[in-house]
Automatic annotation (TrEMBL):
Keywords per UniProt: Lyase
Domain Amidohydrolase-related intervals: 6-330
Pfam families: Amidohydro_2
Organism: Streptomyces ortus
Protein name as catalogued: Amidohydrolase
Top-level division of the source organism's lineage: Bacteria
Length: 335
C-alpha cells in the first residue's frame, strides 16, 4: 500500500456566496475596512491574481490537472477565507454557511476519490456554530474552516465552548486560517497585511487556545493551523518562559505552552526549509501536514519539493507528505 500525497491547504472560490451577500447591510463597511487594512496597491494586485487563477479555484478539471502537475493525489479543500463574512447578521450568516457547505460539498463530489472538503461556521454568532458544524458534516464534509478571531471575540471566549465540545465529540477537522489582521493601517503597504499579518494572527489565535486552557479541556480537538502556525512555534520558548515565571501567564493552562504544539497540527507552508525543520522539531514530525495554499500566489506550486528541501529523514518526509493526513482524516486514502 502506497500512501498518497495529501495537501491539506487548498481553496475553492464560491461566487454564489458573493452574489448572496451583495448589497447586504454591513458589506460595504466590511469591504472598506478590508481596503484600509490592505492598502490600494495590494487590492490592485489581488484583483489580477484572482482573475488569473479563477479556473483552478472553481473548475474541478483545472484543479485536478494542477494537482497532477504538482504530484498531489488528494486535496482537503476549504472555501476562500474571503467568504467568512463575519460582519453578517444571523439570518445572512446562516445563508452563507449553508451555501458554503453545500457548494463545497458539490465541488468535491465531482472527484470524491481526490477531493475532501471543509465548510464554514459563523464565528461571530457562537450560538449558531454547532448547528453550522453539524450541517457541514451532514454534507459529507470533514469539518470546517475558521479564522483567528471574530469582531469582539477571541478564540478563548467562553461562548465557543459548546463548539469545541461538539467538534471534539464528532472528530471534526478544524482548519485555522486567518483572514485580516487587527494591526490595520500599520500593515497597509508592501503586502505586510499578509506577510506579517497572517503569521501574527496565527500566533495570537493559537496562544489564546493554549493559555486559556481550551486545549486542556478539549484534548481531542483536530485543529490544523495554516502557515505553519505563524510565529508561535519558532518563538514558543518566550511563551514557556512567561508561563513559568509569571502568575498571570501561567494561570490558565496546566502545562508549558510548548507541550501543546504536540496536540495541534500545522501545515508545511512556511516558505523556508530551515523554519520547516524547526517546526518539525518543535511540534513533532507526526504533527506537520503538507500544505500549499492552492492556488493563491502566497502559496507554492511545488509543495512536495518545499518539504523535500527541508532534508527530513525519509520516514518524516513521508509522514508530512501524506501519512499524517491519512491518520488524521481517518479516511481510506491509500492508492
Amino acid at each position: 500500500m502506497t500512501l498518497p500525497t495529501v495537501d491539506v491547504h487548498a481553496h475553492v472560490l464560491l461566487p454564489e456566496i458573493e452574489a448572496l451577500v451583495d448589497g447586504a447591510p454591513g458589506l460595504a463597511e466590511a469591504r472598506a475596512l478590508d481596503a484600509r487594512r490592505n492598502g490600494p496597491a495590494a487590492l490592485a494586485v489581488n484583483g489580477s491574481m484572482i482573475r488569473e487563477r479563477v479556473s483552478k479555484l472553481t473548475d474541478v478539471a483545472a484543479r485536478l490537472a494542477a494537482m497532477d502537475a504538482q504530484g498531489v493525489d488528494v486535496q482537503l479543500v476549504s472555501p476562500s477565507p474571503s467568504h467568512y463574512h463575519y460582519w453578517a447578521d444571523q439570518d445572512t450568516a446562516e445563508k452563507v454557511y449553508r451555501l458554503a457547505n453545500e457548494a463545497t460539498a458539490a465541488h468535491c463530489s465531482a472527484a470524491p476519490e481526490r477531493l475532501r472538503g471543509l465548510g464554514l461556521v459563523p464565528l461571530q454568532h457562537p450560538d449558531h456554530m454547532v448547528p453550522a458544524l453539524d450541517h457541514a458534516l451532514e454534507q459529507g464534509l470533514l469539518g470546517v474552516e475558521i479564522s483567528s478571531h471574530a469582531p469582539g471575540r477571541e478564540l478563548s471566549d467562553a461562548a465557543y465552548e459548546p463548539f469545541w465540545s461538539r467538534a471534539e465529540e464528532a472528530g471534526a477537522v478544524l482548519f485555522l486560517h486567518p483572514f485580516g489582521c487587527t494591526l490595520d493601517e500599520r500593515l497597509d503597504r508592501w503586502y505586510l497585511s499578509n506577510t506579517v499579518g497572517q503569521p501574527a494572527e496565527n500566533a495570537v489565535a493559537l496562544s489564546h487556545l493554549i493559555f486559556s486552557g481550551v486545549l486542556d479541556r478539549h484534548p481531542g480537538l483536530k485543529l490544523i493551523a495554516a502557515h505553519g502556525g505563524g510565529y508561535l512555534p519558532t518563538h514558543i520558548g518566550r511563551s514557556d518562559h512567561a508561563w513559568s515565571t509569571r502568575s498571570d501567564a501561567g494561570a490558565g493552562c496546566a502545562h508549558p505552552p510548548s507541550s501543546y504544539l504536540r496536540r495541534l497540527y500545522f501545515d508545511s507552508l512556511v516558505h523556508d526549509p530551515y523554519v520547516l525543520r524547526e517546526l518539525v522539531r518543535a511540534a513533532g514530525a507526526d504533527r506537520v501536514l503538507l500544505g500549499s495554499d492552492f492556488p493563491f500566489d502566497m502559496g507554492t506550486e511545488d509543495p512536495v519539493g518545499m518539504v523535500r528541501a527541508a532534508r527530513l529523514s525519509e520516514a518524516d518526509f513521508d509522514a508530512v507528505r501524506g501519512g499524517n493526513a491519512a491518520a488524521l482524516l481517518r479516511k481510506d486514502l491509500s492508492s
